[in-house]
Design brief:
binds (S)-3-hydroxydecanoyl-COA; 29 helices; 8-stranded mixed β-sheet
Length: about 700
């Protein structure tokens, strides 16, 4: 008998407790243990019913994702579930924590299910690029009807227990001790001589004959590029149209097809990458952390306000400082409006608006920050302003306060040098809108203390962010790589492509939008002002990229906000419309630069837009600005919309394109243009020579 599933009894009830921390994933030992336990209790004359429960923090949270793609071992999950369903003894599954994926599918093989009120269950396989492969697509529709099941499986969302009860997924919610409640429920069912109810014997109702067609239409936009949602529709259709065993066969075929797809491999990689990114190689997980009970924000602008909302959302009181009452009032008003809009859309309770606002204390006085545990500065992006702020913070805050800067481009080491405690200084680069975007680049300065890093990484998670640690370099990781795509997009525009062609290639690859549509959304004037300030033409060692951009800004075409940029817009409709006026500007620019325009293929656009980013990623890795290739991927998937089904730039380079192909293409463009921009990074060269991948670095 394995330890992965423990057997015990309470009177005439046999109890199987899954014991595979941390999340009781369905490893081979767990599958074997459940099957053997059900069989043993099935034959035991002293046992009348069985309770299946999870030990620790959750019922089974799914298949063991790490086992996918490895040679099969142990009992097949479908056989385990069939053994449960066909057991001569009544089985009750007792659900707490997060019964997910194969975990919920196992529970659906029990004759009855009870849960705690706090349990959240679901079939989230879609997020791993697969579909529920142990009968979930066949059993859930039989319990809830096809429409609900389709939505639940395509969204992969966690279903709260009361909703699950109302849909018949669980039969009863028990308060207090789950095991006690489940045993009592089993005894009650025995007393009532309740039947051994098998979900497979129910019929899945189809609420509308057009359900599957309508669902395909409804998901067209959000499921673009993904494979799993489309297969899920087919399997649920099979649940409605085919006998159970045939439906299971269909589910199996489509499951295997998805499991062996590159999309699913990328999504499964990404699942673990996101969790790894939170770990810092030289900062052990048991590093003592500072307590963050209160926060401070300098600046109540768009960024400062958004960051303050993160604190309030997590229940952490925060003091927000501005230099004038007007700016403070404006900032608070924007925050309140944001909350009120969320409440109107049903995203939070109306009474919570005031509760969250009450956690944000406005002030004009630096002394009000003296006792806070973490201050984040979100003021104007010049070193002079940062210097003033950090000198002041150093003076007023208590020893041990973590001093963070939200700079997106300035040198964190220099900022730290304005204080007498550079070890307490760190960068926290939020992305706009800061209350929405999940990515947080935490920037480690050369003096940043390990406990400061540990604290900020775990606090980032507390406020709902996906943190990645990066080093100090221009643009950090995300913007530094983005710049490469921007440079080549500008050159290609001058050489012969139009914004709409470049944007389409990038969009078709899977990004939410291309570089020019993105620039129109963010505001073209931002870069224009920076270019003027920096005298970029002289400073950069790359050919100037701003000729067209400057020309359109000089016409006041700042993007969506002015109704025109690289595209024109019929506001309030934000659909970009190609504009002949811009084409004229581009053609004139090419002429002025002495460039004969030529047709540029979509393949060339893709390579020139994305390969330099991978090359820059290699430099970032080599310089230690990112810890691992996976950190770069997490940044790009979360902050910039790199399609998760392509894993991120480094995974895509490693596993889809191949490093040698990228290396050789860089050389080809270097030789054709004579531009040193294309020189392959030393790390890329080395990996190609050694036949290795970024993931091995
Ligand atoms: C599935 O179930 C497919 C089925 O349809 C069956 C198909 C069978 C087909 C066979 C037919 C013959 N596996 O997230 P946390 C690790 S697909 C392995 O930090 P939390 C995680 O990496 C699966 N490991 O904790 C981390 O490890 P670390 C469907 C898993 O409290 C540690 O556990 N289920 C794992 O924030 C803690 O995780 C899902 O997709 C797994 N399934 O969240 C659920 N799950 O400490 C995926 C977690 O070394 N999991 N780990 O870094 C989650 O959503 C979250 O982990 C929870 C807990 C909400 C469970």
């Amino acid at each position: 008998m394995s330890d992965a599933v423990l057997r015990s009894t309470q009177g005439r009830i046999g109890i199987l407790t899954v014991n595979n921390p941390p999340v009781n994933a369905l490893a081979a030992a767990v599958r074997n243990g459940i099957k053997e336990g059900v069989e043993a209790f099935g034959k035991d004359a002293n046992i009348d019913a069985i309770v299946l429960i999870g030990g620790g923090r959750t019922f089974i949270a799914g298949a063991d994702i790490r086992e996918f793609g490895k040679p099969p071992s142990g009992a097949n999950l479908n056989d385990v579930i069939a053994t449960m369903e066909n057991s001569p003894k009544l089985i009750v599954a007792a659900l707490h924590g997060t019964p997910l994926g194969g975990g919920l599918e196992t529970a659906l093989g029990a004759h009855y299910r009870v849960s705690l009120p706090t349990t959240r269950m679901g079939l989230p396989e879609v997020h791993l690029g697969i579909l529920p492969g142990a009968g979930g697509t066949q059993r859930l529709p039989r319990l809830t009807g096809a429409k609900y099941a389709l939505d639940a499986i395509i969204s992969g969302r966690h279903i709260p227990a009361p909703e699950a009860k109302s849909k018949g997924i669980v039969d009863a919610i028990v308060e207090g001790d789950l095991l006690k409640g489940a045993v009592a429920h089993a005894e009650m069912l025995l007393a009532q001589k309740a039947p051994l109810r098998r979900v497979r014997d129910l019929t899945a109702t189809l609420e509308s004959p057009d359900l599957f067609k309508e669902t395909e239409k409804a998901i067209a936009r959000r499921a673009r590029g993904f494979k799993a949602p489309w297969s899920i529709i087919k399997t649920v259709q099979a649940a409605v149209e085919l006998p159970f065993d045939e439906g299971m066969k269909r589910e199996r075929e489509l499951f295997v097809e998805l499991l062996t797809s590159s999309e699913s491999a990328a999504q499964r990689y990404y699942f673990f990458a996101e969790r790894e990114a939170a770990k810092v190689l030289d900062v052990p997980s048991d590093t003592p952390q500072r307590e963050i009970k209160t926060g401070g924000i300098i600046g109540a602008g768009t960024m400062g306000g958004g960051i303050a909302m993160n604190f309030a959302n997590a229940g952490v009181p925060v003091t927000m400082l501005e230099t004038s009452k007007e700016a403070l009032d404006r900032g608070l008003k924007t925050i309140r409006t944001n909350y009120e809009n969320t409440a109107k859309r049903g995203g939070m309770k109306a009474e919570d608006v005031d509760k969250r606002m009450a956690l944000i204390t406005p002030t004009l006085d630096y002394n009000d920050l003296k006792d806070v545990d973490l201050v984040i500065e979100a003021v104007f992006e010049t070193m002079e302003v940062k210097e003033t702020v950090f000198k002041k913070l150093d003076e007023v805050t208590k020893p041990g306060t973590i001093l963070a800067t939200n700079t997106s481009g300035l040198d964190v080491n220099q900022i730290a040098s304005y204080t007498k405690r550079p070890g307490d200084v760190i960068g926290m680069h939020f992305f706009s809108p800061a209350n929405v975007m999940k990515l947080l680049e935490n920037v480690r300065g050369k003096a940043t203390e390990k406990d400061v890093i540990a604290t900020v990484m775990s606090f980032s998670k507390k406020i709902g962010k996906i943190p990645v640690l990066v080093g100090v370099c221009e643009g950090f990781v995300g913007n530094r790589m983005l710049r490469m795509r921007g440079i080549q997009s500008s050159y290609m525009m001058e050489e012969g492509a139009l914004p709409q062609q470049i944007d389409k290639v990038v969009f078709d690859y899977g990004f939410p939008m291309g570089p020019f549509a993105m620039s129109d959304l963010a505001g073209n004037d931002v870069g224009w002002r920076i270019r003027q300030g920096k005298k970029e033409k002289e400073k950069r060692n790359v050919r100037y990229t701003g000729y067209v951009a400057d020309a359109i800004c000089e016409l006041g075409r700042f993007g969506q906000k002015t109704g025109a940029g690289y595209y024109k817009y019929n506001l309030p409709d934000r659909t970009p419309i190609p504009d002949p006026e811009v084409e004229k500007i581009i053609e004139e620019t090419s002429k002025k630069l002495g460039i004969t325009r030529r047709a540029i293929s979509d393949q060339e656009i893709l390579e020139r837009a994305l390969y330099p980013m991978v090359n820059e990623g290699a430099k970032i890795l080599e310089e230690g600005m990112a810890q691992r290739a996976l950190d770069i991927d997490v940044i790009w998937v979360n902050g910039y919309g790199w399609p998760v089904y392509r894993g991120g730039p480094m995974w895509w380079a490693d596993n889809v394109v191949g490093l040698k192909t990228i290396h050789d293409a860089l050389l080809k463009y270097r030789d054709a243009s004579g531009d040193p921009f294309w020189e392959p990074a030393p790390l890329l060269k080395k990996l190609v020579q050694e036949g290795k991948k970024f993931s091995t670095v």
